[in-house]
Amino acid sequence: MKGISAMSKVSEPVEFVINCFERNIDEVTAPGFLAQAVQQHCYPFAVRTLLINNVTDRARAEAMANDCLSRGEIDRFCFVDDLRERSFKQVGLTEKDFGRFLHWSDCCVVALVMDGPDLLCYVDVDLTLRPAMDWITPALLVMRHDRRVAVGNPAWVMPNGYSPVAAEADETGEGFILGYGFSDMIFLARRSQLARPLLRRWIPLWLECPATMRFPGAPLGLFFEQIAEGYLRLHHLRRVTVLGTAFEPIPISDYPVTGLLERIRRKRNSLVTAGLVVARRRWPRLITSPRLRYTGLLDPEFQVDR
Fold it and tell me: Model pTM?
């Protein structure tokens, strides 16, 4: 794989989109917060957009967003409620698909479908990069020169200091790795490539792409990260992970499994994921489909000869 330093520069406009809720809108719209959220990516975004989601006092939220506009910290703001129906229709999803995850996922879908530059950088409001770094330029360079690569993100590190990035790699390059996966906390993508039907209704995702059942919240219903990753894996579209900076994933909220249906899903998912692990260990050269594995071909635990 060619190193990113040898590639040409990127000049395409990128939109920065960040989402806020009732619980954090006061913090997000306080002077300096959004400016810092943008600056940590060290990239000259063409448009900076604030999404406002699930607020109780719309007029108050609008006034605070207008203050951010007047300070020059954003270029526009939108309410998720105004765009949800059209956005879901375009990607072939419904509110019922998400269950308890509706407001964790609808903002990502809206960001993907709303009008704007083709290139979108969506960032979770709680995300912090350490150190601040332009990861977008190298990601775009790889995406431009390798048609297999559809999305990008920086590396990530767990609270205990361990980073699973290398174990998820299929290929390595100069300053980046390639593999399968998706993060709804931060992603770089082309709207023209992903703002389309993401699920095939005639076959359930757990059966079509079993690897997506590893997500902790999967028993409670679908969510955007899971759906997007399934789409990418089914279409053999890869992710570029840029090294040199990292974020710490935010743990999923602790929603207990309740009711018979969720308990059945939890049991099914545990059996599916356990079966995938056993199959990969026993037949590593056969279980290479991205639908069936969630580690990389370079994972030292499996060491697939290529």
Answer: 0.91
